[in-house]
What we know:
Transmembrane segments: 34-54, 66-85, 91-112, 119-138, 144-163, 175-194, 206-226, 238-256, 262-281
Helix content: over 70%
Pfam families: EamA
Number of strands: 2
Membrane topology: Multi-pass membrane protein
Keywords: Cell membrane, Membrane, Transmembrane, Transmembrane helix
Structural class: mainly alpha
Strand content: under 5%
Distance between the termini: 15 Å
Protein name: Multidrug transporter
Amino acid sequence: MKPLKADLMILFITICWGSSYLLMKIGLDTLGAFNLIALRFGLAFLIAGAIFIPRLRQVNVKTIRYAMLLGFILFIMFTALTFGLKTTTTSNAGFLVSLTVVFVPLIHTFLFKKKLENKVVICIMLAIAGIALLTIQLPFKFRIGDLFCMAAALCYALHINIVSTAAQKVDTLNLGILQLGFTGLYAFISSLLFETPVWPSTTNSWMAVLFLSILCTAVGFIFQTIAQKYTTATRTGLVFSLEPVFAALAGFWFAHEIMNSHQYWGAALVFLSVILSSINVKVGRRSTIKNGPVSLDTYTPEFK
């Protein structure tokens, strides 16, 4: 798979996840936090598992271990996000969760001892500026829920980095499916301990859960796992920074929320950061021979 196709797959996931905030709020009207996560990931696992049963028969122990770890990280992430949405504003949550774009390269640098390139730093700064314009509503007040949202961003950045490593070592389709099952299992156990598990009681809740399960979870996380084999963790984080843009568009189309001029500028900056990160700039070094030709070997990509 070419890197462009992988980026387009991640872009499609980002569009789906942009609508997930609205759907989660609908689901939380009748379901507990752990109950919603268990249904979302449990149904996604059953649907994907039923489609790919022959592939799952080839699963190995290494894949299961990675899936258990990734499922646990996703469970912590969605638990933090769900409780964060209950105790802070949507604008604060949208901005703080989008800090994933910063945490991904920082964690990558820490884990693999690699220096951040100047181009990546510029793209991250543009993305954060755009996200701030798009989501923050003044006065910005810090709430306990903001800590939950920051924890969710940190967990997801860790998830992206581990997926990038695991995708080179195990079957990505099996990994993507199994992590859903483990996430749903952890959430179901928590729901039994702290809630009373129930089925959705309204048509809107069922529609929200099914959309979250099929597109946002089954398709989303499996596509992410497969696509990350062919792109970098930092590029993945930058494309995911478009999530608040699509969240704002979903709010405009379905909830009739109007964007102001600052939000339009913010969306433009986020798009610009992703476009710049996808451009491969080749820089040539001067030849040591006066007026001599420059060898093609002296050209190296600045960003991959």
